[in-house]
Design goal:
There is one protein chain. By secondary structure, this protein is an alpha/beta fold. It folds into two domains: about 120 residues, Immunoglobulin-like (Sandwich), CATH 2.60.40; about 220 residues, 3-Layer(aba) Sandwich (Aminopeptidase), CATH 3.40.630. The chain contains nine helices and 16 strands. The strands form three sheets. The protein has a six-stranded mixed β-sheet, sandwiched between helices. The chain has a five-stranded mixed β-sheet with strand order 5-1-2-10-9. Helix 3 crosses helix 9 and helix 7 packs across helix 9. The protein starts with a helix and ends with a helix. About 40% of the residues are buried.
Length: about 400
């Protein structure tokens, strides 16, 4: 290859890589008052962006294709018409900022300031109060043809031959951090660490095929998590969480199964919180498809729920005494993530970040390997007969 051509290709490759480099968000802030509020985002370079409005509750969503954040996602302090905000990645290369609003607003100005050393590029959004009716009409006009426009359509079903597929769903992720402990540990990190270790433990036995809904700090809507289980014809779906509750004395692992009526107030409160994960990430629940279970045979739904309960009771029985369990370790509630009608599903609450003993456990070196191994062996024992029979 001629030297000139080789040099051209090297330079072109470097240029393409630089052009494709992520646009890092350095800072963001709300300024102003309840009469007029400005939200400012500082970036490395002028961004591509999209702003859309969502209702129930009122929010503004700022999508930044190709954006990344220079600091770990955390809630931000609002001001004026912005009560608070959060940010994170909802998919690789798709950064999102969600503004919770103190009331309906009108976007009166949106512009980008080019970077001029030493000042960064700035995305500026100016807000003033408006009526509920005007905000709702603008939100309707913002609505994309697809629910979010950011997630691919489900792929063709993946048929599982041989080993039963166990789908492990580390709760939360990306922009949705979940609960946060007193010392700053985040639920999304706890669940991912445990989920990865549980998948590793299941692979060691080579009798079951683990599949993760996420293997990194990525946001997934609840419907997409359920779709992973259905697409893989999963024999079992385990959604992993580590929530917070008002009662800081509550601790220990808890296994939840689906029920239209919650078994107790704590289960009902947790289900309501988890079912709002999409709202916290800026998605509108009204954009989600209708519950598919409504069009399926009641017999199939009942059989799936029965298998879910059998596994939940089996898991509790096998880990009792070997890992800290809640005083009421099997509970029921209406969790949306457990609603795949043909897939037995449980939600495993590893413990509660609102409890200092559970939080300390999640930070220990022995965890999650010890507890993931216990859960993996329980799953394997539950499927021993089925695997041997080739079911």
């Amino acid at each position: 290859m001629p030297v000139v051509l080789r040099l051209f290709l090297v330079l072109f490759g470097a240029f393409a890589a630089a052009a494709a480099a992520a646009n890092v968000v350095a800072d963001m802030r709300a300024i102003g008052d309840s009469e007029r509020t400005r939200f400012v985002v500082d970036l490395q370079k002028s961004p591509d962006f999209r702003v859309l409005r969502l209702t129930n509750p009122d929010r503004l969503v700022i999508d930044l294709p190709g954006g990344e954040f220079g600091a770990p996602a955390r809630p931000g302090q609002g001001r004026g018409l912005v009560s608070d905000y959060r940010y994170g990645l909802i998919a690789p290369g798709k950064a999102r900022i969600v503004l919770d609003l103190a009331g309906p607003v009108e976007i009166v100005n949106t512009f980008v300031l080019e970077p001029v050393d030493p000042e960064p590029a700035r995305l500026v959004i100016d807000l003033v109060p408006t009526t509920d009716e005007a905000f709702a009409a603008a939100a309707l006009a913002d609505r994309p043809s697809q629910p979010t426009g950011l997630f691919p359509a489900p792929r063709a079903p993946v048929r599982a031959f041989g080993r039963p597929v166990i789908v492990i769903d580390p709760g939360h992720g990306g922009i949705d951090a979940g609960a946060t402990g007193e010392d700053g540990i985040r639920e999304k990190d706890v669940t991912l660490k445990f989920g990865l270790e549980l998948a590793r433990q299941l692979r060691l036995a080579a009798e079951l095929e683990p599949v993760l809904t996420r293997s990194d700090d990525t946001f997934l809507p609840l419907a997409d998590r359920v779709e992973v289980a259905r697409r893989h014809h999963a024999a079992l779906f385990i959604s992993v969480h580590a929530d917070s509750v008002r009662e800081d004395y509550v601790r220990g692992a808890t296994v939840y199964t689906l029920s239209d009526d919650a078994s107790d107030a704590l289960a009902a409160a947790l289900a309501e919180r988890e079912n709002r994960s999409d709202i916290l990430a800026g998605l509108s629940l009204s954009d989600q498809p209708d519950d598919v279970a409504d069009i399926l045979f009641d017999l199939a739904r009942r059989e799936t729920r029965n298998l879910s309960v059998r596994f939940a009771k089996s898991l509790v029985g096998k880990v009792a005494g070997a890992m800290p369990l809640n005083g009421n370790p099997w509970r029921r509630a209406d969790f949306k993530v457990l609603k795949a009608p043909e897939v037995p599903s449980v939600l495993l609450e590893l413990g509660y970040l609102s409890n200092k003993d559970d939080e300390a456990l999640f930070r220990s070196k022995e965890w999650p390997k010890k507890e993931a191994k216990l859960v993996a062996r329980s799953v394997e024992q539950f499927f021993e007969g089925k695997v041997a029979a080739g079911q």
